[in-house]
User: What shape does this take?
Amino acid sequence: MPRKKSPRRTPAWMRRLTALAIALGVIATLSYGAGAHIAVRYLNPSFGAWWNSNEFAIIECAAAAVGMLIGIRIGARLVNGGALRNRSMIAAVIVCALVLPIVGRLSAEIARLRFTSGALANGWLIDRFGYDVGMFSDKLLVAGVYSIKIAAFALPVGMVLFGAAIAILMTAKPVGDAAGAISK
Amino acid sequence: MLSLRFAVLFIHIVAVIVALGGSLFSTFALAPVLAAELDPPARLRVARRIVRRLGAIVLTSLAVLVVTGIFNVLFIGGVSILLAIKLILVVVVIALALYQYGNIGMQIWRISAAGPSPEVADLQARFRRVGLTVGSVALLIVYLSIGLTRGSGAIVASIR
Assistant: This one.
């Protein structure tokens, strides 16, 4: 007997936006870790040069966007009330897009505080896989952990942006069927 | 005294006072007085407006707290284990506050439009329980913050 699917609570546009941010983050992180800009330069020199100078900023912004979008989605799951929730999500995503460069930069600053992959991980990877693969894996690990840390720091920002949007919309106008009864 | 760091810390502390003080006042002073002094329909009318207004104040304070908190971490210049625990607890508090005001509060708002009912009373009890949990975790965060600046493992001392 087929299982009954519960209705999805996250709108499709939000799922697509999150998937896009994750994909962009993963591609930029892998490209940075693997030094793939050399291959891109080989195919298209001008785009390769642009990619090389911007891929780190793209990693930071994509990671911050993933963190904030996940924060908004967690916040939305905790809230009851369809119309208000959807409006708050849209408002929060717009504000997220506006503050993304700032949040990305600040989260990246915090993520860089006292962090290296550590000689332990580096040594273990070289012991396990040899020098070339070990160094390559270590660079990938550092870039991956850096992205995850940026996303982790951006997550509460997304949650509070959603909370602030809920707060503003909640007080701006009574919501739902109860509104009429209350205003009377 | 008049540095950006000082101003950010001041706003951060004021936001904690507003969020925590508002919740504690509502739970321990306002709700018992309303229960004692007003008849059920009037009490419900007042309570539902308070839920909405307090929700806006608490959620806005949390937003201010997170923004100023990020700047504070940058000013401190390091992330310790204690700070990481504090940040996780902050996420828990935000989630609980969103659940309290955005979910339970919203249900109280909707259901109570028809007047007092047992369902509303249950929701109000749950609202109070979640509020107490938020208050307790917030107090724990305040305690950890004192540990960060004044305790033996003070992050400023360990870095500079």
Q: What stands out?
A: The mean pLDDT of chain B is 83. The helical segments of chain B are 4-37, 40-76, 81-111, 118-150, 155-159. Chain B touches chain A through 40 residues (CB under 8 Å). Residues 40-76 of chain B form the longest helix (37 residues).
